Amino acid sequence: MDIRTAFYAPSSADLSRPKCPRCGSVLFAAERSTFNPNGRIRHTWSCDECGNEFVTSITILPPQA
Length: 65
Ligand SMILES: [Zn+2]
What we know:
Blueprint: E1 32-36, E2 40-46, E3 53-59
Antiparallel strand pairs: 1-2, 2-3
This protein binds zinc ion.
């Protein structure tokens, strides 16, 4: 069996599992995450396939008063 033939169908709610911008491989766990006091979380990802490193950031909006 070749696991490379298994393809993950794109999902509309795939925010927590980004694809590597270089090779398209789906990543499952962030290398590290840093929280910013102004409401941003930065995830640093390292691709197992090609070694590419990239960062995603999420803005957490404060709850509406
Ligand atoms: Zn990659």
